[in-house]
Amino acid sequence: VSKVSPLQSVIKPDAASAGIDLAKSWVFITEPSLGNVSLSCNIVKIKNPAIKKDIEALLATKRYSAKEQAADISIVETRNYLSFIRNSDGTIIDSIPLNMEMLSGKADQIVSRYAQNKYLRELKSGYANSVHMQLLPCDQDGNIIQCDNQNSVMALKAGSYVKVKVTNKGSNRMFYNIIDIQPDGQVNAILPMQSELTIKHAEQYALDAGAERILPFVIDIAPPFGNEVFKLFASNEPFNLVPFIASAGLQTRGSNESVVSAFKKDKIQTRGAAGVNKQEQQQLITNEVVFRIVE
Q1: Alpha carbon distance 142, 221 (integer Å)
Q2: CA 181, 119, 264, 244 torsion: positive or negative?
Q3: Given Cys at both, which of 71, 85, 176, 287 links 234, Cβ 3.0 to 4.6 Å?
Q4: Chain segment 70-99, per-residue pLDDT in tens
Q5: Does residue 212 register a pLDDT over 80?
Q6: What are the strands, taking DSSP E only, across the chain?
Q7: pLDDT, tens digit, for every residue of 151-175?
Q8: Closest Cα to residue 107, out of 46, 160, 161?
């Protein structure tokens, strides 16, 4: 496969195809799906017919669907606001005033951000999980505090502190990024740091086979309350997700396209990795820690 676009692929035959009439041939291409890009919304509690029509039109133009049962989020009209609620735990993702100009445009931003958040939360690797991450509760000075619930969802009080430990249990040197997915859908960079925008910056975040590292800084746990995710992405080649958290307009050169595509506005997809020669393909490994922020 020499070129890929959303609607077309250009195929360059290898030597084994010599003598085949390609005009009379079928070509089948498969690729792994790294994540679920679907999103469903319950909109039955939108009372204003004009607003409901605008939201229905918004959902129709995206990869989203409207349904009453088992929806990912509910869009609820109250007295003065349109609220977006995650149904799994009741978290209010965002709210906007009903009298806001360009209401459907703001709703588009909120729903797209949540779809991005959901994609990242559910993104799983097709490779063996050899790079692991662990949260270590600590005090403000970074002294580790023993914790007994490492095998369950850790509850962390707002105002507490953690450090992050990364371990490479594989046989190859791996580069890694870590992001924070907040309960309200906000995505933040942990490593590389927000000011580190280049591949050169990303090259320093690597672990040799069998190595482990406790990151030198302390992370302050703060609201919003609810389930939060620290997610690690690891690859056999350096990559940097920071520019795509901050802006959708920067170059993708040098980054793992399967991950980077999740950060591009209105391009939440797993297709589009240029060049699928298996020997040249980047490996992508994911690992995550889910914890609950409580008062």
Answers
A1: 13
A2: positive
A3: 176
A4: 899 999 998 899 999 999 888 888 999 998
A5: yes
A6: 3-4, 9-10, 39-42, 64-66, 73-77, 81-86, 92-97, 131-138, 154-157, 161-168, 174-181, 187-191, 206-207, 212-214, 219-220, 226-235, 284-294
A7: 578 899 999 999 999 999 999 899 9
A8: 46
How far is the C-alpha of 218 from the C-alpha of 241, rounded, in Å?
A: 21
Helix H or strand E segment including 117: helix 103-122
Helix (H), strand (E) at residue 201: helix 199-202
Report angle CA 171, 172, 173 to the nearest 5 degrees. Answer: 135
- Supply the pLDDT for residue 262: 45
Q: What is the 3-state secondary structure (H, E, C) of 33-77?
A: CCCCCCEEEECCCCCCHHHHHHHHHHHHHCCEEECCCCCCEEEEE
3-class DSSP state of 7: coil
SS3 at position 132: strand
Residue 127 has pLDDT above 70, yes or no: no
